[in-house]
């Protein structure tokens, strides 16, 4: 018997093949040779497998899972209804409650069309980040965030529908009044930063005045929804899309029809241009425009109270402005609770902080458009509901000292 034949029939061959078989199986599971090495040697990707709350991957997964998650919630509602006695179920049937749940299922389909389109666009525009992200047995799928998707869909109403016009006018009005005082001829050379831009309506309005505007937003729940409007692939004409944005919350509703009412959007079609650009990243990573002394204006709308360290935030606003540049603010002070915020300041303390960091805050003796004032307003409100959440938001203009 030859030595080769002995090798083929011995345990040596089996011992040699086992590592190769395991390697091939690893490729099938992980999908990428780099992933195999990272599992073996502890690479960085395996240590940061869970995406952040506002990351592209989590946002895209949440939009993709919207219909599944919403139907799961509907299933729980039907189970709760079914847990009543026969007599009570009969009363519910006579009231039309089973039809109401059926309308919710239809509403989920309506909203799911928009959510699915956003998810598909995300895959097209970010193929490398989305391709095979968190797939395979060793990478469990990302858990979608139904609440954040619903919040983003309501922002379509606030920012880009006729129904949201009244809410926008109240909070945009004081800000735009300040910017309209700038010389129209000079506006094309003036830079405006809008951090926490959300779905970008305020930034777009500012760019329409002729300013070079940067819309800055960290959350990809907002960024992907904004891209859905900005892309010619998904939005070509006004009022092209339809949502039933308030159907998920049965509380405080006057009628079933108002609960399931449809809202068309966008009322106008936005596009990126030389006057409107996106900065999809953390505000604290923003730097002054290249070749300039800084932004002419920083506009914060319902933004500064999202800071975990408002001292750092206002300090950064100051660093981004040119000498003589203006910080325009409107919003409440709804700090992140649970002890997460490093400081939770009163209005008095915030204004004192601004002075300490190098701002002069306009007072009641300033021209009318610059005077501080309280603006009573809502935020993504359901205009037909029995409940209203009113903010006593504060407006002020602060100038960076020369």
How are the SSEs ordered, and which strands pair?
Layout: H1 3-8, H2 11-30, H3 33-41, H4 44-47, H5 56-64, H6 66-82, H7 86-95, H8 97-125, H9 127-130, H10 146-160, H11 165-179, E1 191-195, H12 201-208, E2 212-216, H13 220-230, E3 241-243, H14 256-259, E4 263-265, E5 276-279, E6 295-301, H15 310-320, E7 321-331, H16 347-356, E8 359-361, E9 373-377, E10 391-400
Which features does this protein show?
single chain; 402 residues; alpha/beta; globular; eight-stranded mixed sheet; two-stranded antiparallel ribbon; Rossmann fold; 14% strand
Query: How many strand units?
Result: 10
Helix/sheet category: alpha/beta
- Major sheet details: 8 strands, mixed
Share of β-strand residues: 5-15%
Overall 3D form: globular
| CATH homologous superfamily assignment of the domain at 146-400 | Vaccinia Virus protein VP39
The mean pLDDT is 90
The percentage helix is: 40-55%
The SSE string, one letter per element, is HHHHHHHHHHHEHEHEHEEEHEHEEE
What's the architecture of the domain at 146-400, going by CATH? 3-Layer(aba) Sandwich
**Helical element count?**
16
**N-to-C CA distance:** 95 Å
The CATH topology of the domain at 146-400 turns out to be Rossmann fold
Spans where pLDDT lies below 50 across 5 or more residues: 27-31, 35-48, 133-139
The Cα radius of gyration reads 27 Å
Keywords: Membrane, Transmembrane, Transmembrane helix
InterPro entries: CARME, SAM-dependent_MTases_sf
Protein name: N2227-domain-containing protein
GO molecular function: S-adenosylmethionine-dependent methyltransferase activity
